[in-house]
Design goal:
two-stranded antiparallel sheet; about 425 residues; disordered N terminus; alpha/beta; abc type-2 transporter like fold; elongated
Length: about 425
């Protein structure tokens, strides 16, 4: 070996077959891989496998606009009776019925506070009474309003609940009418047995390029991935450039001289670069989704600012976790921002239709907070009460926690003298 050789003589090369016989080499990768597969399966499938079984208190508006006079011998008109029966039905706790006026119901549809609505019209009692007259053919109606902006699954669940409630009310009224019209012909009896027609309409329509209410979820996922992957790429790139990590591309391997720098200053550098590079990544995400693919979006300047702050908060969190946990930081941040975030986001499956564990996570998991804000901007005219105000608040809290946690941990490590590596000579 000459003085100019850069590769030290480490003796004969070891064969893979020799290493495969070492149980200790298998132990840690096997355990970690198995645990990851098990946890991912339980967490992801556990959030979506039985939404109807887990469904509880899905908010739905109930509008009784009936102004008809009560039928003879009764104190309330039929609309009031139907509404009272629906609300008092304790056989199922799947719906949280909110008795509202028509204007209030529309406002809650427009702000995403309800997943749908059941509307009893103003002439409901009069139209039912008309069925007992001669030559009755017109059927009274109830209207089911859907809210696809809350997601296709949530809107579908609400539609099913409201339709079932309306059909049950129709059968109950039909029994009363059939008993009162004992001498009616067979055609009239058939009409009276199920007198109410249920009409479904969109209560809060979306554009054709909104992914049936899923574009908000996928756009949020892009922001989280931009912050998560960007943060990790920046972290690895800085460590490589400062000589604290090897750089290996294909057969080429390099190790740069170690730059003497504290953990705190390294974290400051990474966070500053994250703040700068996130401008580009978020701009490209918005350009691709809206400019190239034509995703329906309004309030573009607000959407860009919100997207930047959301992705930056994730990126700062990733840097803080990596600084605190070191080599396993990427795995920890993956669980925090993605693995636990997806099933608890409420973006595809309503939080009212997931197990209690995920509803608990939704109070602080980043993806739920970010998706509420994106949904409010894209679908609900950027209304603060549609989730945007809370989203801004949680972004601020999340970013502050990331900064405080990251710098607290690196300052502690620096005070204790925990250096990352022994400096390597140039």
């Amino acid at each position: 070996m000459t003085a100019d050789d850069t590769t030290p003589d480490t003796g004969p090369l070891v064969h893979a077959t020799t290493l495969l016989r070492r149980p200790k080499l298998w132990l840690v990768p096997t355990i970690l891989t198995g645990l990851l597969a098990l946890l991912l399966s339980l967490l992801y499938m556990g959030g979506i496998v039985s939404p109807q079984h887990d469904l509880h208190d899905l908010p739905i508006a109930l509008v009784n606009s009936d102004t008809g006079r009560p039928p003879k011998g009764q104190k309330q008109n039929l609309g009031t009776q139907v509404a009272a029966a629906i609300v008092s039905d304790t056989s199922s706790e799947t719906a949280d019925w909110r008795r509202l006026t028509r204007a209030q119901a529309q406002d809650e549809l427009n702000s995403g506070k309800v997943y749908g609505a059941l509307v009893i019209p103003a002439d409901f009692t009069d139209s039912v009474a008309a069925l007992t007259g001669a030559n009755a053919t017109a059927r009274p109606t109830m209207t089911v309003l859907t809210n696809p902006a809350k997601g296709s699954l949530g809107s579908s669940l609400a539609s099913k609940i409201t339709t079932t409630a309306a059909q049950q009310a129709s059968r109950t009224i039909g029994k009363q009418l059939t008993a009162a019209a004992s001498g009616a012909d067979s055609t009239t009896e058939l009409l009276l047995a199920d007198p109410v027609s249920v009409v479904t309409q969109v209560g809060h329509p979306l554009g054709d390029n909104s992914g049936l209410g899923l574009s908000a979820f996928y756009y949020t996922l892009l922001l989280v991935l931009a912050g998560f992957m960007g943060g990790n790429v920046i972290s690895n790139g800085v460590d490589t450039a400062l000589g604290y990590a090897d750089n290996e591309i294909g057969p080429w391997h390099t190790r740069l001289p170690t730059v003497p720098i504290s953990r705190t200053q390294t974290l400051l550098l990474k966070m500053a670069m994250t703040a700068g590079i996130t401008v580009l990544s978020v701009s490209l995400v918005l350009l691709a989704c809206v400019g190239v693919l034509g995703m329906d979006a309004t309030h573009i300047p607000l959407l860009w600012i919100y997207s930047y702050c959301a992705a930056l908060a994730v990126g700062l969190g990733v840097q803080a976790i990596n600084a605190a946990f070191g080599g396993i930081g990427q795995l920890v941040s993956m669980f925090v921002f993605i693995v636990l975030g997806l099933p608890s986001s409420g973006a595809t499956v309503p939080l009212q239709a997931v197990p209690e564990f995920y509803r608990f996570l939704s109070h602080f998991e980043p993806m739920r907070q970010l998706s509420d804000g994106v949904r409010a901007i894209l679908y609900f005219d950027a209304r603060g009460d549609a989730g945007l105000a809370r989203a801004w608040t949680m972004i601020g809290i999340g970013a502050a926690i990331g900064l405080l946690f990251g710098f607290a941990m690196t300052s502690y490590y620096d005070r204790k003298g925990h250096k990352r590596l022994t400096p390597q000579p140039s």
